[in-house]
Amino acid sequence: MNLLILTGLLAGIAGCACLYLASPNQRWRVTALPVMPARVAGVALIVLAWLGLAGAMQRLTASFVLITLLMLVLAVLPYVGALRGMGRER
Amino acid sequence: MRTEFVRIYKAVHTWTGIIAGMALFIAFYAGALTVFKEPLARWAAPPAAMPAVALEDTPQLIARVLAADPMAARDFTIHLTDTEQVPGRMGWQVRDPDADEHDETSVRHYAATLDADGQARIESVHPSQLASFIDVLHRVVGLPVDSDPNRWVMGIIAVLYALALVSGVVVLLPSLVKDFFALRVGRNLKRMWLDAHNVVGIVSLPFHLVMALTAVVFAYHDGIYVVQDSVIHDGKWGTAFQRPPPSTAAPTRDPAAMLPPLELVARAKAFAPGFEPTLLQYQQVTGPRAVVRVWGKDAAAVSPRARGGFAALDPYSGKVIGNDFLPGRQSTPNLFISSFFALHMAAFGGTPVQWMYFVLGLAGAWLFYSGNLLWVESRRRKQPRSGGGVPAQRRDVRLLAAATVGVCLGCVCGISVSIVGSKWAYGLVGDADAWLRPLYYSCFFGCIAWAFMRGAARAGVSLLWLAAASTLAIPLTSCVAVLMPGLNMWAHTSPSSLGVDMTACVGALAFGWMAKAAARRARHGAPDSVWSGKQEGGLGEGAPGAGVQAK
Predict the structure, then answer these.
(1) Using a CB-CB distance cutoff of 8 angstroms, which residues of chain A are in contact with residue B203?
(2) Which of A12, B418, B533, B539 could form a disulfide with A69 if both were Cys (CB 3.0 to 4.6 A apart)?
């Protein structure tokens, strides 16, 4: 896989994780990350992800890929967080 | 927002979801698999019986085949790859003129090669229809044939789906910010299923909106075109985009004078450097309007079709005569239309996006399944805290719980059994494709009957085990093919084919895990639920069902 695409995908996942972990509804950690710094980092990582993807593919394609990635990761993270939370409570 | 408005939208969301949910589960589960249609076709394809012709020798192949069968000149294909599902370097199809344009079962396939003497050898071939069959299940929500009436049914389901999406968002709006990302697992099962449903629905809303809108257009595009033609184009649309006819009676052209395929590929790649050609589709090569479509993919661009896009070239001069369907080189209006196709079919971004769509498709199936679970849980009759007997659950709740388990797991089991059967039937009875529908529908309806007989809780456990077993049978079939070559089966070792086996392994483990969880719930969960196995099975009066009860 193209290194730029890989970087873009990883940055996108990390950005989503920051946004999720900053939410008061997150269950991954005992306490949520500080809201503003985590949100800023999340948005910055997502912008970085788009830049990486756009470096390897057309901008419209990069946008579609990023949106698809965001939908997937942001839908999966609450489930992962809930599973971790359940494991912690056992 | 006024409470009564929310209540109305909630009713719309509930009933559109209940009516369309199970059909949409089938569409999404089959659709997730259809993302990997090519690997499935490769897994199911019997070893090629024809010797491959080197690409360098393709001009002789074309010339000799067209001399032997001039009708093939109307539309034939040269495959540039030697993947498992390609029966020969050159192939073409003959369609039944009375059949529906989407009906793949009416198509006769031919392939050609050169024998040892350099003469054309033409054979009727029967490529596996497995991947197409699963695609049909996806396209017409589990109905057996992709025909106009079935697509209209799918269109109605898609309209209900769109309504459910919009109404669901309206219902969620008052608590959207507060509950975003919330997935509260605990004693309040209704809350848990609501969160589990909402988190997927709201985050992947753009994906679902695109799916719903494109599905409506796919269902009714013929009617839409007719209206467009009469209202906008005064009935002249059919002729508006045709090239002008040749001025004089053109002589028949000699296909031997065409540029070699490798030269045409080089011309296409020079025109679009990121484009990776996979096949050449020649049309009317002996006529004045000869054209070759160089089909291929470009992961960096948006493709207009699931199998990519094409550059249209003159096969005699190599001149590019059309790029309306060429990924990365489309005009803005064409790209706009292509984006909808691409967003529906994961035709952009290459393999990573295919995997994302696979998971989003499964998540979509879960969205509809969890919607039904929520409906059931919301109508649960609870045992009074003061004691007393376990209340009987409502009959409609028991029926919907059984139907949800039967239809959804019946689809899962039916598809797995069809995949397995496509190889076993080929080895044992020859015409494997004739067995796909009987295998799928007997399994599908058998699971539904079982769910209604046993009730959702008990049937849920056994059907999940059946789903695990039938899915595990996919890689086991490949193992058996290697260990027992006398069975006339095969196991390909390409990454695509092995990927099918490995994905099936993971799927089987997931179904096994769910079966164990469902069994635990049926045994130890609260008895005042359709998902408790402590109560009588079946759907007789007063008998509770079966199912999914969190401990």
Answers:
(1) 71, 74-75
(2) A12
- Whether residue A61 and residue B203 make contact (CB cut-off 8 A), yes or no, is no
The residue range of the domain holding B448 is: 391-551
- Closest B-chain CA to A25: B182
d(CA A80, CA B384): 34
Backbone φ and ψ of B142, nearest 5°:
95, -5
pLDDT for position B79: 95
Q: Write down the mean pLDDT value for chain B.
A: 91
Tell me how many residue pairs between chain A and chain B have CB atoms under 8 A apart: 85
Please tell me whether residues B546 and B456 are part of one structural domain.
yes
B269 within 8 A of B261, measured Cβ to Cβ: no
Q: Which residue of B has its CA nearest to A72?
A: B360
User: Is residue B365 in some structural domain?
Assistant: no
Half-sphere exposure (Cβ direction) of B21: Cα atoms closer than 13 Å: 27
For residue B364, is it within any domain? no
B417 and B526 in a single domain? The answer is yes
Instruction: Kindly tell me if the per-residue pLDDT of B537 is higher than 60.
Output: no
Q: Is B242's pLDDT higher than 80?
A: no
ipTM of the complex model: 0.97
Same domain, B547 and B452: yes
Å between A87 CA and nearest CA of chain B: 12
